Amino acid sequence: MSSTAVFGGAQAMNILINIVRGKLVAMILHSSGMGVMSLLTNAANTLQQFALMGINMSAVRNISQEAESGNEQTLAATVRIVRTLVFMASALGLVLTLACSPLLSQMSFESQDYLPYFLVMSIAVFVNVMGMGEMAVMQGLRRYKQLALCSIVPPACGLLLSIPIYYIWGLKGIVPAMILSGTIYYISIRMASYRKKTARTPVRWRDMWAQGKEILQFGLVMTIGSAIGTITTYALTIFISNTGSVEDVGYYQAANMITMQYLTIIFTAMATDYYPQLSSLVKKRMSEARRFVSQQTEMVLLIVTPLSMLMILTAPLLINILLTGEFQAIRTVVRFMGLAGIFKALCFPMDYLAYAKGDKNYIFWVEVVWGNLKTFTVISGCYLFAGIDGLGYGALCSAVIDVVVCIVLTRWRYGYHLSSDAVRVLTITLLLSGSCFLAAYLPNVWASYGIMASTTITGIAYSLYQINKRMDLHMAWQRLKLRSKGQKTD
User: Fold this and answer.
1) Cα–Cα separations (whole angstroms), residue 145 to 151, 156, 193, 439
2) In degrees rounded to 5, what are phi and psi of residue 487?
């Protein structure tokens, strides 16, 4: 819970920084400049993910397991191997950017006028990949304070230094600003990571190849999965556009933006601490790992359920605030996706069992192949028969199917089943959220909002009560106040 609060706050700060950046860039560079910046940023992100090949995700598992073993020599060797792989990935990203620059310029802008932009951008790709790799090292070593600091300070500094560059150089300042921000990002992370030195130990090339091969293989599966997920999303938007209209694609993207942001913040924040801890447990203490998964399931349900209920209650208001009145057509979609978020939260802790164990076959065939095929089939089928509202029906059906498959397969493959406490929390949260959701469709407006408001308040109270039982919120608040004053806590 502590790490979720810290990293959730960091994620929220990053979103705020991006909003401020977008506003200032729009004022300085106008719409054309924002378009150029978007194309360059998307190209850089794609090249970075391809060059890194999932090393940042797979490395966390290996480092955390070695850290748990307590052997400083093997831990130092693993960290050195990861850093070597990251450097090679960074060099690959730089070379790829240089080699693909003419093609990228032609595809993005239908001319070679922006070729120099892409050539210079190779430096930004290099430093960003180096920074992402070092973040994985710190996550594996569970240096959470440094991680949280590096998640906020470098983006904020990059924003402050980039704006004058945009103002002075205009479009020509976009890539230099990317390089400056990436360099600040990497230097900050490197300083934080190297502050506590690990033991230095020589690594034989044979050992480096053996462990590096395992890291690359696992990372490659996740890279392929990410690519297939992107293709599936693209194929779904094409299906909606061809079957319905471009406006429907806009509605779908808008609903996703509203409903997925809070889940992304929570899941990213939780995974920062949860994934390395679970990885260290599954290697030797599987029974404890199963108990840890159930505890995480209870916590994520208690956090997500009130937020989902608030989304169901305030869907029309959220749409007016975040979008415009014309998007009220997605009110039903947002409510169905809000309820689907609870089922996604239920799957989240169980899904990480496969990643913690490095189960490549399960991840590829279940998470990637089956998951994407099911998502496309269910959502497109529901849209075909029910139009805009069908996008919401499909999202909920897909999430429910995920839960059933996940519960069955994790029990069969890893011997995991929900604890009685987790089942109790799940039952109560589903009853509350289900009542809130059904009340949204009552014909009487006063009765509808009255029931939604009362069940939401009850859901918030229940979640706070259960979280307090597990961690004593009053004591946590007192400890936080003492720390803010620089006083030590027991």
Assistant:
1) 10, 17, 11, 43
2) -95, 150
Q: What is the dihedral of CA 275, 279, 281, 287, to 10 degrees?
A: 80
Give the least confident one: 59-68, 145-154, 447-456: 145-154
Distance CA 280, CA 52 (A): 23
Nearest to 278 by CA among 305, 301, 297: 297
Q: How far apart are CA 55 and CA 74, in angstroms?
A: 18
Whole-number pLDDT of residue 219: 86
Rounded distance between C-alpha atoms, residue 295 and residue 285, angstroms: 15
State how far Cα 221 lies from the chain centre: 17
Specify the length of the chain in residues: 490
313-333: pLDDT as tens digits: 999 998 888 777 888 999 999
- Model confidence pLDDT, tens digit, residues 394-437: 999 999 999 999 999 999 999 999 999 999 999 999 999 999 99
Q: Which contacts (CB < 8 Å, 24+ apart) does range 303-306 have? A: 303/4, 303/266, 303/345, 303/463, 303/467, 304/263, 304/266, 304/341, 304/342, 304/345, 305/342, 305/345, 305/429, 305/432, 305/433, 305/459, 305/463, 306/456, 306/459, 306/460, 306/463
292-310 per-position pLDDT tens digit: 999 999 999 999 999 999 9
Give the up-direction half-sphere exposure of residue 479: CA atoms within 13 A in the CB hemisphere: 9
Model confidence at 18, pLDDT cuts 50, 70, 90, reads confident
d(CA 438, CA 427): 16
Amino acid at 197: K
The alpha carbon of 232 is separated from its chain's Cα centroid by a whole number of angstroms, namely: 18
Do 191 and 52 meet the contact criterion of CB atoms below 8 Å apart?
A: no
- Rounded-to-integer distance, Cα 68 and Cα 88, Å: 27
